[in-house]
Amino acid sequence: MRFQPVIPIAVLVILLVVLFIFLLIGALRNHGTVLHKIVTIIVSALLCLSVVPIAARPMIKNKDVQYARPNLDVLFVLDTTMSMWAEDYHGDSRMSGAIETMEYVMEEMSGSSFALITFGNKSEIKLPITQDAQSIDDAIKAIQIPDKWLAEGTSLNSPFENMEYMLSHMGKEEGHERIVFFLSDGEITVDEEKIDFSDMASMIDGGAVLGFGTKQGATMTDKYGFKLYDHDTFSEAVTCLDMDSLNDLADELEIDSIQMDNKKDVSDVIAKAVANAEEILANRDDLDNYDDIYYMFVPGFMVLLLAAFLLFKE
């Protein structure tokens, strides 16, 4: 229980003391019997006391807090290869831009369920579907630049199996829609035939392939701050955004492709997904909601007020 007084407690006490003094003087001046005066004083005291629980506005915690949330399952597929740390996203790294965008999506799609897949040398399901957006945020902020000696290049094929697995397990509840955000610079450095993602399109209801970086490209540094060099030319290695490969992927998944310049570039995609989603009522254990109970004391106050009126009238 907690209290939210309508007026400061000190002011309330002063006002009630003054009120009681006036009532006491009125009772003593009454020409009735001694018993009548005693009853009047008691009723006056109770009347003043009955104001306290009303003015103090007591509230009790309501554990059954419900809110309307979009019926969406959102899958993030994040490129964590070395090139994502190239600093050609407004002077910051591509990874910083990707993380900023994911945080924006989670904020704008609050109440949805989220999952995270990362891919570098191998693909990992970092977090399965969850409504705990903070867990996703913690997971993406914990991602570190890969070791340059272990990096094996970039392949967009890498997350295929995990995406297929996650999408097949998402949206199983009636009305759930599956939204995918694929975040990468699209640069493919592995010589292999690209897998066709078209069969996944039927399992996706919206989202976008998001490209980070610039066509001009940027150099890269390792986790110690040293520049990376091309082993063939011995010059500084430059990585460039490849929107063509990302556009091809978006076409296969039948979703939009966006070259990111600002986190709000995905606003239209988010708005469309939320607008098309059903809203469901869900409980929130992490929210504190309190209900007023002052009205329970009002009937007693009214009875005492009427009794005081009748006593003083005699």
Question: Could you describe the 3D structure shown?
Answer:
With 314 residues, the protein is of the alpha/beta class. The chain has two domains: 2-63 and 289-313, no CATH class; 67-283, 3-Layer(aba) Sandwich (Rossmann fold). Helix content is 36%, strand content 21%. It has eight helices and 13 strands. The protein has helices spanning 9-29, 34-55, 94-108, 133-141, 160-169, 243-253, 267-276, 298-313; strands at residues 2-3, 58-62, 66-70, 72-79, 113-119, 123-130, 177-184, 206-211, 218-219, 238-239, 256-259, 279-283, 289-292. It is elongated, with a radius of gyration of 33 Å.
Can you lay out the helices and strands and say which pair or pack?
Elements: E1 2-3, H1 9-29, H2 34-55, E2 58-62, E3 66-70, E4 72-79, H3 94-108, E5 113-119, E6 123-130, H4 133-141, H5 160-169, E7 177-184, E8 206-211, E9 218-219, E10 238-239, H6 243-253, E11 256-259, H7 267-276, E12 279-283, E13 289-292, H8 298-313
Parallel strand pairs: 4-5, 4-7, 7-8, 8-11
Antiparallel strand pairs: 1-2, 2-13, 3-12, 5-6, 9-10
Helix pairs in contact: 1-2, 2-8, 3-4
Short description:
The protein has 314 residues and is an alpha/beta fold. The protein contains 8 helices and 13 strands. The chain has 2 domains: 2-63 and 289-313, no CATH class; 67-283, von Willebrand factor, type A domain (Rossmann fold, 3-Layer(aba) Sandwich), CATH 3.40.50.
